């Protein structure tokens, strides 16, 4: 069982708290290059420093900003690998999957499924409402964006999935309660971690329904599939395709994408449609393809501590 992968006698509860702090501090250190670049520009041009995140995201060249933001996730990923391998004494695979090896076919299936959906729906929106988009394609800028995105965005999304759906899911599971507890806790924390996103300021706290709902969806497919592979593919496709295809003044990623949305976000379309309609359809597709059974046990059953160590 995936949630029991970290159950070793020396793997104490406090280690998850300390490990999380180590990863967080590494991400803070990774933000120093961005702060230096922003400070250098403000001094050079005699301007005041950005006062909010929206202003910060557009203060430097968009490609440079994206690179420097994603760099902090690279620092954090290195720290996370150290925490799992050396601090917890686990094989890194154990926070990814319960299978003997990572199932790349699952990752690619989820990636192409969600990536195709995003591409098709974006194209449909553009051709049905062209006045709500601005074509901003610039080959040289897009080429740089593509290289940055294809290298660093999978690091960012993989880190987030392995922390929330792997590391913390297993950490909360060690409390020996029902599986519903780590599922809900990691989903709520995942949502709270997005509070600083510009979308929250634009749409208000209602957007948390989407963030927490997405966390629940990713947690469910992780528990049902006994691994994070599907979540890894979905999250990578979501951020990568979005960064390359379309941006807006209120999105977390400000990029030299192909399109720029000029429309205002709609609560029903942005928040409710994915959680109420699209995610359940994806759950059905995954469940049929991978023959998921025993939903109640896998999602709400009690976490029984193993009697032997797992390596």
* Alpha-beta content class: mainly alpha
Number of helices, counting only DSSP H or I runs of 4 residues or more: 12
Number of domains: 1
Order of helices and strands: HHHHHEHHHHHEEHH
State the strand order across the main sheet. Answer: 1-3-2
Please give the share of residues in helix: 55-70%
Rg over CA atoms, rounded to whole Å, is 20 Å
Overall residue-averaged pLDDT value: 89
The profile of the biggest β sheet is: 3 strands, mixed
N-end to C-end Cα span: 13 Å
Spans of 5+ residues with little confidence (pLDDT < 50)? none
> Which outline best applies?
globular
Short description:
With 311 residues, this protein is mostly helical. The chain has helices spanning 13-30, 32-45, 53-57, 62-87, 104-128, 139-173, 180-192, 198-203, 208-225, 229-245, 267-290, 295-300, and strands spanning 133-135, 246-248, 259-261.
Structure, explained:
It comes from Flavobacterium beibuense F44-8. The chain is mostly helical and 311 residues long. It has one domain (2-300). Helix content is 67%, strand content 3%. The chain has a 3-stranded mixed beta sheet with strand order 1-3-2. The relative contact order is 0.16.
């Amino acid at each position: 069982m995936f949630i029991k992968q970290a159950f070793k006698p020396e793997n104490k509860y406090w280690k998850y708290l300390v490990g999380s702090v180590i990863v967080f501090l590494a991400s803070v250190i990774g933000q120093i290059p961005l702060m230096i670049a922003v400070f250098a520009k403000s001094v050079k041009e005699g301007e005041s420093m950005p006062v909010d995140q929206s202003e910060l995201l557009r203060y430097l060249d968009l490609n440079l900003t994206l690179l420097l933001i994603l760099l902090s996730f690279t620092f954090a990923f290195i720290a996370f690998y150290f925490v799992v391998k050396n601090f917890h004494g686990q094989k890194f695979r154990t926070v990814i999957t319960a299978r003997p090896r990572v199932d790349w076919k699952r990752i690619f299936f989820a990636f192409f499924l969600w990536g195709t959906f995003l591409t098709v729906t974006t194209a449909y929106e553009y051709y049905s409402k062209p006045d709500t988009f601005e074509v901003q394609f610039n080959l040289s800028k897009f080429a740089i964006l593509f290289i940055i995105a294809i290298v660093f965005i999978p690091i960012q999304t993989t880190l987030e999935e392995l922390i929330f759906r792997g590391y913390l899911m297993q950490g909360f599971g060690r409390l020996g309660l029902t599986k519903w507890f780590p599922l809900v806790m990691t989903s709520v924390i995942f949502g709270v971690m997005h509070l600083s996103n510009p979308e929250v300021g634009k749409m208000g706290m209602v957007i948390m329904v989407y963030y927490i709902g997405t966390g629940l969806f990713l947690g469910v497919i992780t528990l049902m599939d006994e691994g994070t592979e599907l979540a890894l593919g979905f999250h990578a496709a979501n951020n990568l395709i979005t960064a390359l295809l379309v941006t807006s003044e209120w999105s977390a990623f400000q990029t030299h994408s192909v399109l720029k949305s000029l429309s205002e976000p709609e609560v029903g379309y942005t928040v409710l449609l994915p959680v109420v309609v699209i995610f359940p359809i994806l759950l059905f597709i995954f469940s049929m393809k991978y023959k998921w059974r025993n939903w109640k046990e896998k999602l709400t059953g009690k976490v029984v501590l193993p009697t032997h160590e797992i390596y």
